[in-house]
Amino acid sequence: MEVVLANGEILRTAMGALPGAKTFAENKYGYGPYIDGLFSQSNFGIVTKMGFWMMPKPEHYLLLSLTMKRREDLIPAVSILNYLEDSFIVGWPLYRSPLNPPHGKAMNSELEGYLTSKRGFPDLDKIQNYALKNNIPYWQIDIPIYGCKEVCHANMNYIKERFKIIKGAEIKIVQEFSLPMNLEQKKQLKHKVSLGIPNMEIFWLSTRGETREPSDGHVWFSPIIPRDGKELLKCQDVYIEVFHDLGMKSPITPFAHPRSWMYRAFCFMLAFNNSRTDTEYNLKLRKAYREMVRVAAKNGWGDYRAAPTFQDDVMAAYSYNNHALRRFNEQLKDCIDPNGILAPGRGGIYPKNARDQRFANAKLDELALKGGKK
Questions:
Q1: Measured at the alpha carbon of residue 347, what is the angle toward residues 265 and 237, in degrees to the nearest 5?
Q2: What's this model's pTM, rounded to 2 decimal places?
Q3: I need a labelling partner for 117 at 20 to 30 A (CA). Which of 13, 74, 92, 107 fits?
Q4: Smallest Cα–Cα separation from 84: which of 145, 138, 149, 140?
Q5: SS3 of 333, please?
Q6: Using 50, 70 and 90 to split pLDDT, how confident is the model at 324?
Q7: Under 8 Å between Cβ of 64 and 142
């Protein structure tokens, strides 16, 4: 990395610290401590340059679709996919559920009714029967494979063998291309990020896109959970109960899926829209978020990022040994940015002259919820 520090100096890390280095990005460690992580999700410096390791362009690309009929099928499926992904047999598996309506479409009223038909909680049996009756897969997982054509097809056959243990699981080819692709093929590609084609699809998750109108704003709650099917189903149940107890409509369903772009773990993301006009709604949303942070920590799950309003709450959850991580971060802050020039409070890290501001947002929200000044 190349980083501008709070005192205006330019720092280059690892091999970049060697003038004229020919391996600026090829060797990320260099000599001495590996400090690049200090400039990720922190306020210790402004990164102006960085190197990336890239995958060679493969000869062939094969996209498979795995569909499964039952909610519990996810448990063995995750275990199989973990092995395949960690062995570099497949690329990034994309989890979803066909029970979720497409962007811009309303959920089927019968299915939506089952989400609260059991004394305010989802009726899992009725949801499962609905999926079976209407021949809708409970889960669909897109699985990319890369390599030469022969290897791609051999791996596909191996994957099919592994998934035979799941009754009713089906694997089909969705797309297949030899590389390099022409412009028309690139337009047809379902998951452009899988082949490193720049695009804005990731932002369609919650904000805007070809099938979604812009919202007033949004907040993500993004706990990191084990890459384990049982834990995912537990996470669904836990957060459905949280919203029930708060008297709010739950954005979580028994077919909510994980985000799988992180190695060795799942990110269970929940999206909330903000309102430009409804202050009470926004206050309730922030109360719910803080409760979710608390519940996550209780279950061993941690939010990996947060909007500024919640950064103190999230950092406080990482509290091992009397908040040793936060104390260490702030000791570093005092050394390299003693005047708090760079984003004081970012990531829950404050300089000495601003530590009395910690939890200021939470205190203001609490006052507003009690009917005080908004």
A1: 40
A2: 0.90
A3: 74
A4: 145
A5: helix
A6: very high
A7: yes
